[in-house]
């Protein structure tokens, strides 16, 4: 078993009143830890947790329809500034934070609240490590990969803070056992490298399969992940390096 106070990567998930502060606030946070075991393998660790947060404003019905948190459930809860630091910064044990599509959580979990923590985005890392997944949402990855040891009911309901953090922790565990902590952090600090075209006449194709004219159109896309992927593929075609790595068969692979 890990030591009683091991260093941890804390996976978190937020439920909020909307897309971004300051117009919106956090109404729930959940967390689940992942730790490096004595056998050198990463494992999901501890019971995790959940806390309601008073968002300081009513929860819009359109948001309640996603997570089903009621105003009366959070009315007497502490405010975000009082909840965040103890959960986000269990100093000195925490070595990084993680979330699925971490860019969203980072809007609320500012460096001042996290003590400048490194972040891992399991969505960006899944694009690299598991490019054959039919989709890259937390739940699709769960049912496509069927992580060993996950308790089905403990990961429900979806779109609630603790169950989502619990599911993400199993993805993170498996990622850390396939790649290094540093690599996951590095991937998380740059835009996502998309394995397939997501829209238009080339939808579903690998980026290596589309012609130059089609590729050029994506260079001005508003989506930073689309632009980055198109730029990376263009650099490969110009001899500036591979998008991913070569498989033993010599075909382009998107897993490194």
Q: Secondary structure elements and their pairing?
A:
Layout: E1 8-16, E2 26-36, E3 42-52, H1 61-67, H2 71-74, H3 80-88, E4 94-99, H4 102-108, H5 111-114, E5 119-121, H6 122-129, H7 138-145, H8 161-176, H9 181-188, H10 212-218, H11 224-237, E6 245-246, E7 252-253
Parallel strand pairs: 1-4, 4-5
Antiparallel strand pairs: 1-2, 2-3, 6-7
Helix pairs in contact: 6-8, 7-8, 10-11
3D structure, described in words:
It comes from Sphingomonas hylomeconis. This is Exonuclease domain-containing protein. 36% of the residues lie in helices and 17% in strands. The chain has helices spanning 61-67, 71-74, 80-88, 102-108, 111-114, 122-129, 138-145, 161-176, 181-188, 212-218, 224-237, and strands at 8-16, 26-36, 42-52, 94-99, 119-121, 245-246, 252-253. A 5-stranded mixed sheet has the order 3-2-1-4-5, sandwiched between helices. It has a two-stranded antiparallel sheet with strand order 6-7. Strand 2 (26-36) and strand 3 form a beta hairpin. Helix 6 (122-129) crosses helix 8, helix 7 crosses helix 8 (161-176) and helix 10 (212-218) runs antiparallel to helix 11 (224-237). The two termini are 31 Å apart.
| Residue windows where pLDDT falls under 50 for at least 5 positions | 244-256
SS summary, helix count: 11
Number of strands: 7
SSE string:
EEEHHHEHHEHHHHHHEE
**C-alpha-based Rg, rounded:** 19 Å
Shape: globular
CATH architecture of the largest domain: 2-Layer Sandwich
Helix content: 25-40%
CATH class of the largest domain: Alpha Beta
What is the mean pLDDT? 92
Strand content: 15-25%
Please report the distance between the alpha carbons of the first and last residues.
31 Å
- What is the spatial order of strands in the main beta sheet? 3-2-1-4-5
Which structural class do you get from the secondary structure elements? alpha/beta
By CATH, the superfamily of the largest domain comes out as: Ribonuclease H-like superfamily/Ribonuclease H
GO molecular function: exonuclease activity
Protein name: Exonuclease domain-containing protein
Domain Exonuclease: 8-181
Keywords: Exonuclease, Hydrolase, Nuclease
């Amino acid at each position: 078993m890990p030591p009683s106070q091991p260093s941890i990567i804390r996976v978190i998930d937020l439920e909020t009143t909307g897309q971004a502060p300051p117009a919106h606030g956090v109404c729930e946070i959940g967390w689940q830890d992942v730790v490096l075991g004595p056998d050198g393998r990463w494992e999901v660790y501890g019971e995790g947790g959940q806390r309601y947060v008073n968002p300081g404003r009513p929860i819009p019905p359109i948001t309640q329809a996603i997570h089903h948190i009621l105003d009366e459930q959070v009315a007497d809860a502490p405010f975000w500034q009082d909840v965040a630091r103890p959960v986000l910064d269990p100093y000195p044990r925490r070595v990084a934070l993680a979330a699925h599509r971490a860019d969203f959580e980072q809007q609320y979990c500012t460096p001042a609240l996290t003590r400048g923590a490194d972040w891992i985005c399991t969505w960006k890392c899944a694009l690299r490590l598991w490019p054959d997944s039919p989709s890259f949402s937390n739940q699709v990855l769960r049912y496509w990969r069927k992580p060993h040891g996950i308790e089905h009911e403990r990961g429900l309901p979806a779109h609630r803070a603790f169950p989502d953090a619990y599911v993400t922790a199993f993805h993170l565990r498996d990622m850390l056992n396939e790649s290094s902590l540093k690599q996951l952090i590095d991937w998380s600090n740059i835009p996502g490298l998309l394995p397939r075209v997501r829209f238009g006449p080339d939808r579903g194709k690998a980026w290596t399969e589309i012609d130059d004219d089609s590729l050029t159109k994506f260079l001005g896309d508003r989506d930073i992940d689309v632009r980055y992927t198109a730029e990376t593929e263009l650099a490969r075609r110009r001899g500036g390096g591979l998008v991913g790595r070569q498989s033993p068969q010599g075909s382009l692979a998107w897993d490194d």
